What we know:
By secondary structure, the protein is mainly alpha-helical. It has 14 helices and no strands. It has helices spanning 10-14, 16-36, 53-59, 62-93, 100-112, 115-125, 132-138, 155-179, 184-193, 197-208, 210-225, 229-234, 246-255, 260-295.
Amino acid sequence: MTAPRKRPSTASLMLVPFWLVVLVAYVGTMLWTVQISFTASKLLPVDVYVGFDQYHRLFSSTRWLVSMQNAVIFGVLFITGALVLGFLLAVVLDQKVRFENTLRTVFLYPYAMSFIVTGLIWQWLMNPGLGIQKAVRDWGFESFSFAWAVDRDMALYALVLAGLWQASGLVMALMLAGLRGVDEEIWKASRIDGIPAWRVYLFVVVPMLRPLILTAVVLLSISVVKAFDLVVALTNGGPGISSDMPAKFVMDNLFTRQNIGLATAAATVMLITVAAVLVPWIYSEYFRKVRAGAAT
């Protein structure tokens, strides 16, 4: 006797429009972008296929290679710095300090701003004639220099600094929520055994926070890939191309240079790079464990 067929639930039927939007608006447009990257499209998309010519031009471009290198440096420093700084801030606030609510709001407030506002704020702070450098020199420290935004060697690190200022509060909020969920008995046992607090944090608490750390890394990685408005507002990719980013390369070729084929080729490379890094990690962290739990 065959088992009766399960009828789709109301909840499943309600999700059908959502999945249609995902397939058309996201998956469909991604596939269309990949298709255009194989054409000779300039101002408008055309169906003149040129194979991998756009990719050859892309990787022959010094600007693209510099922007990819900048993205790697920015991403490593930004993600690592935000995780470390956010975790340290969360540890401090977890000590039941006075005015905790005020401090938590102050640290989290920059994340409520857009990257364009953050870039404008730090552009002013690093302006040699208006910002911190001028103020300190007016106090008598004539040799002080803090003009990173206009320094070819430091412009990229200016982006990192501005990004850390904005994103560390988000990591702090995530980590603080995780720290408040740590069993108090762990701390009591560590104090009885005489284990230093830093070892408890490093070898016990941090592994317990792995899901939150993964969430923070994914959110920060999205910010790295989308690093366009911060770059435009703070350095505009300069001086020269010293702080250029892949997202700015794509946008410039789409709207300024009218080279859709090259822009979509760059966007496709960004998509493949992000997928190659994040998909295996997310799979190992979540789906493999879910399957292992279901098997047992």
